[in-house]
Structures are given as C-alpha cells and as structure tokens.
Amino acid sequence: MAGINSKTKLLFKLLKTSLSFGIEQIALIWSDRLGRIGLIILTIMIFVGIFAPVIAPSGPHEIYRYPDGTLKRMEPPSWAHPFGTTIFGKDVLSQTIWGTRVTLKIGAIAGIICVFIGTNIGLISGYYGGLIDDILMRITDVAYALPFLPTAIVLVAILGTNQWVVILVIAALLWRTSARTIRSNVLSLRNRPFVEAARNAGASDLRIMYKEIIPNLLPLIFLFTAFSVCWATIAEVSLSFLGFGDPSVVSWGRIIFLAFAGQVMRIAWWWFVPPGFAITLFVTSCFYIGHAYEKVANPRLETY
Amino acid sequence: MGAYITRRLIQLVLMLFALIVLLFIIFRLLPGNPASMVLGPAMTPESIAAQKRLFGLDKPLTLQFMLYCKNLLTGHLGLSFQYRTEVMAVLAPKLLNTIVLMGAAFFLTLVVGVIGGAYVAWGKRVRSGDLAISVVLFFRSSPIFFTGMVLLTIFAYNLGIFPVGRIHTPGFRAANLFQFYFSWDFLKHLILPAVTMMLYYLGNPFLVTRSSMLEIKGEEFIDIAKAKGISYWQLLFKHGLRNSLLPVVTMLSIMLAYTLGGQVVLETVFSWPGMGRELVFAVKNHDYPLVQGAFFLIGCFVITGNFLIDLLYAYLDPRVVYK
After folding, report:
1. For A42-289, which CATH superfamily applies?
2. pLDDT at B22 over 50
3. Strand ranges, E, within B45-163
C-alpha cells in the first residue's frame, strides 16, 4: 500500500513540476508581443490539424463532380468551395486543412530531432574538448560546406520518398547550426564555479553535463527548437515542391507542387495561394515564438 | 597573415577532399543500376558489358575511386547518361547562369538589407522597428517558390510587365557572351527571380545590421561625431554603418551556402537554366555523373567562397589571424 502511495506521490510531483514548467514557458512567450501573436496562430493551427476530420468539408482525396458526371475542374472560389477546386476536382479548402496535419507533424518532428542531435554534439564537443571536439567540429564544418537542398534531394532520391526518410534527411543535415552555438555556450559555462563545485563534490561527467550545464542552456535550446521547426518546415515544403515529397499524403508543399506542375498559375491562383499562405503563417508563428526566447537567451544570433 | 593563409589553404584542400570522398560514397549507393538507365531491357548481356566498360563501371571500386580523383583534378567530370556528352560541357553554361542570377540577387539583398537595417536601427521610433521586423520575418517565412509564384501571377500573368520565366525571350540570339548577359531582354528576365530571392534572404543582413547598429549607437565616438555637428546621413553611413559591417561579413559565408541551396527552388519556379534546375532534372532521370558533377561544382563553390570570405574577414579585422 505504502509503495503505491509513494509512487502516486512521485508521479503527482512530476506532473506538477512539468505543468508549472509548461505554464512558465507559455507565460514567457506571452510576455513578448510578437511571441503572443505566434502562440495564438500556432494554437489555432494545431487545433485545425487535430480536428481536421471534423472541420474539413470533405476527405483529402474526395473528388467533386457536376450532376452530369463531369469533374468540377478548377472552379473559382464559391460558397460550395470557399477556396475553389483543383484540376482533379478536389476541394482546396479540405486539402489545405488535411495538409496541416502532415506539414506540422513533419516540421515539428524533424525540428526536434535536429535540435536533439545538435545539442548533444555541441555539449559533448564543448565539454570534453581536445580530440573529441576537433573531430566533431570538423564533421560540423563538412556539414556546413554541403549545400542543404541539393544534398537533401540526392539523399531522398537514394533512400526513397517517404515521410520518415524526409524527416531523417532534414534532421541529419540541419543540426549543424545548433551544434556550433551550443558548443560555444558550453565552452563558456564549463569552467564556471558551479561546475567546478559539482566536480569537486564528485559528480560524474554525465551528471555535470545534463544536470548542471543543460538547465542553463534551456532558453537557447527552446530558441533553436523554434527556429529549427521553421527551417525544417521550409525544407520539407521545398522538397515536396520539387517533387521529392511523399506522394501518398496531402501536404501543403505537395498541393503547390501539383498546382505548379499543372501549369495553371495563370488561371487557378486559388489552388496554390491557400496552402502557401498557411505555410507562411505557420513558419511566421514559430519565428515569433523564437523571438520571445531570443530576448531571454540573447546570444546575438545571426541565423534567421 | 601568411601563416594564416597557409593554414586556411590546407583546410580548404582537406575540405575539398572530404567533399570528393563523400560524393563518391553517396553516388555508389544510388538506386537503379546506372547501366539500366542507358540500356533497354532488350539488350544482350554482351552489349550491357560493353556499355559498362564505356562508363568504367566494370572496374573494382578502389580503382574507380582513383580514376575518379584523377579525372576530377583534370576537370573531367565524366559522361552524362542523358546527354551522352562531357558533364563539364553540359554544366559550364548552366553554372554561369546560376552565378549571374545569384550575384545579382546577393548584391540586391545586401544593399537593401544593410541600408534598411541601418535605417531602422537609427530611427527613434521603436514601433517602426517592430513593424519592419514583422515584414522581414513574413517574407523569410514564405517559401521561395510561393513568393515566386505569387509574383509571377501578379506581375507576369496578370499585369504582363515581366516575362513568365526563362532567361531570354524564345528566339533571342546573342552575338556574343557580353550581349547574352548585358541586354535589356536579359535584365527583364532577371528582375523577378532576383527580387524573389532578395525578399527571402533579406532577413539575415537586415537583422544583423540592425542589431550591430543598435550596439554602435551607444558608443562614445558617435556622440563625439554628433558633437562635431556633421549631417545625419554622414553620421549614419560614415560612422555608424562602416563600423557595424563586420558581423555582416561573418554572416556572408553562411548565407552563401544557403542561397546556393535556395537556387534549386528559385530556378525551378522561374525555369532559369541554371545548375539547380539541372540538378533536379538529373536526379529525376538518375543521370548520376551529371548529379555528381553538379554537386561537386556547387560544393567547390561554397568551400572556395567561404575561404575568400574568411580572408576578407581577416583583412577587415586582423585580430582573427592571431587566434
């Protein structure tokens, strides 16, 4: 009985700390004017993504026809189809709503993985120094010399056009920026008195790295998470636009790819403007949230 | 300075070698046997073997690597599978087109970004600074292809002011290279893609100049210059801007790699016959000597570009040499 009780207590405590931590972060973002706007837009978009099946007028692949059976090709916006239809007779509004899910998911996962890799490489490199630092930083240099999109295209072509491949390729190429910045911050932290104190008290390297240094870098890590989501989203939609996206799902980039490939820009502007504007809004909202963290971290970033 | 240049030169060579090795590894993994792209399924095993011999695919990998290094050093990037000509001959004019577009866009981005950033930082109203940041971030968030498509729809398809892509009007004949790039026709085709790219990359120089300008604004030498009674514009350009350019130079090398990557999308939207567009075609057609060649040229461009920017930085701020 006592065992269960202490376990529940522990769980409750954990929940409480993570909840108060979350509220703290939201309050921090909310205190910045741009951050507030970003948070509102982002929340709405996440809701649209989660409730896509309820909100969207039709499924992502549903085809509309006239009573006589012909396809509703490139109908301009109307009450029945607020954003018009595509050349294949699909409703652009529904496609944009369904696309929210895919693009937000890929952008968020790729962005988070990339910060995870970058933080760990930067931390290990900066903390241990010496040969490890040299090797890791030379790898980072090579990663910097690779032009991002061309490399991503080639890798996706090799490994297959599938959502998870796209996520991994983006993460594998984008970690470089966060690795460099985290490293330079670890370098300035590792000789501070509190780290020395922990070391003298007998703390292990792992403990010092993850319990003493990381908490001091959290605003910077969140900042990079926000920016990495922006870069990853832009990368994903660009890959999709070039025809290297997952063909089985409806994403914002892929809608625009089909509109562009159909060469109907002259007539059907409604086909690519809604998804394009959605991309812009989503990335802007993440940049704004990053802006709120930049005020806290203020590492004089030059990386928009 | 000499020792610094030598050290950077050694690094340059090492980076190039890393690029070459990486390329070799990546391209031996590509799906679809390259020979199967060239040959029809009806061909006999003998002719397949003959084709493999023609492209040097029958030799062991180590020997292929040695040959490949030798060829790269002598400027032979191999035979393209689609065009059946030297990769270099296919890519050279494309590379020039890319460099011209990139140069124009880069120049435009720097001029507008630096002057805009300085102007906003120098102003007294904080509100206008926030507004300017929002506008810049908006364009930074809008993918290049979307901005490009919107500009095309408005200015080319509806207003008809600019052409709808490509580098020249069909049927245009240039008497020489000079006329090819320095003609009214070319300029008209250049403006929309260059402006599209500028809008996307404006954020970098704009925000960097702004923040470094804000820092300099509080320094004593500005107060002294003000006390001397010099004009507003002289203060802005001669004393403020000149001293806040260093961070902009640092940023150039990162921007170089990013913009070259962005070229792929930009050239696709505007049907610009450059390296980026060629690279996309080549990947889709599994033309791997061409992909490899394009990739190699882009990589070399980035690495040497970074080298030159580092030298420029060392010249502007000699302290880095002694690190």
Report:
1. MetI-like (1.10.3720.10)
2. yes
3. none
